[in-house]
Amino acid sequence: MARNATAFVCQQCGAAHPKWNGRCEECGGWNTLVEEAARSGPSGPAVVGRGRALTLHTLDGPLTSVARRASGIAEFDRVTGGGLVPGSALLVGGDPGIGKSTLLLQAAAALSQSAPALYVSGEEAIDQLRLRADRLGIRDAPVQLAAATAVRDIAATLDRPGAAAVVVVDSVQTLHVDSLDSAPGTVAQVRAASQALIRLAKERGFVLLLVGHVTKEGMIAGPKVLEHMVDTVLYFEGERSHQFRILRAVKNRFGPSDEIGVFEMTDVGLREVVNPSALFLAERERDVAGASVFAGIEGSRPVLVEIQALIAPTSLATPRRAIVGWDPSRLAMILAVLEARGGLGFAGVDVFLNVAGGLRITEPAADLAVAAALASAAIGRPLSAETVVFGEVGLAGEIRAVARAEARLKEAAKLGFTQAVVPARRNAAGAAGAARGIKQNAISHLSELLTMVRGGLADARPAGRIRRG
Questions:
Q1: What is the pLDDT of residues 238-293, one digit of tens each?
Q2: Which domains does the chain have, with CATH numbers?
Q3: Which of 14, 89, 179, 263 would be a feasible disulfide site paired with 230, CB 3.0-4.6 Å?
Q4: Which helix (H) or strand (E) holds 200?
């Protein structure tokens, strides 16, 4: 008779260890190992010959088109690739209180107008869900509600024809499988519960939306366990003090990744933002040193945001570097390039950098806009309010080309900007941008940017005529 074996499983990365350690050797997390029962069963050559032979197919077989389920919420459908694919599983993660449950309840209400929708809550009672629906003004939506945490009961409800076409489970960390001894929320429970529901979704063809909690580092709890199992991973981002919320796709098997949807949190729920650039720039102060407008690309959408920089004297031995919405490593690189190639000094000052509106920028094309904001703050000259900036900065101070310059210029022209500081090494898309009334200032080195900042960008000359200062 085989004895029951146990293993110590990390609750952050899912790695199994034969004995307890204070620190996980895989992810480096401290005090994350929990003892769980190890699954026992036949392994090795004994398994061969016991399975059912698979039916093999070729690549040139017939294609079947699948009709997506559009929610009617344009920003939500945009992020999912045009709608939800039947039989797919989506994971939505975000900080507590960011609005995940509100968004999915609104999406379920919109989808229920054309297909049966079920909202299963493991954290709230039915009365609490009704109070939220009343606040959102969707009490008349034909959404079915259930409060349950047992996977066996949820599966029995869904494992019948026509039970539901869209199922929301809030959240996966509250579910438990009764065949496991570990507590809900552990890696083993999350893995088993998700696997059971995803398998049932693909068998019955309903859309499964799972809400996932995040760790202290901002990642979905058990990321390697969940993200590989689902078809789409969405992150709901934003500062709770800001009214803007960003729904970002980091994985999508049925659409583009890195697509974003912008929402505004109001007293009656989330409202989609059709033109996010106008809202991000609505409260922009003009003629202030240390501010620049960056023309970025989020997924397939051009977005204009304001980058703010502040430089203040410090009495500390180690000056502070505070960053909100950008990569701290890239800020350190831009500061070093400005010192080494531009002659600006940041050794004895505190540097604060902020991306206004709560958006987080990840693309290297923001290097030049950040450098412009820092140079403006250091020199004390404000940039022209009608100027957008984009480009990548190299360690030698060179300005490198970025993708989709035409789309960036088109968005800037639509919002009334008249000048653009762009990389000199790029494609011929600049001619179309100039034809729309944007004066392009093509630069190839960081020193040219500093010359323009000292002149306030007021006497900027056409592309190709700017000399290195």
A1: 877 778 899 999 999 998 888 999 999 998 899 999 888 988 898 888 889 999 99
A2: 74-274 (3.40.50.300), 279-454 (3.30.230.10)
A3: 89
A4: helix 187-204
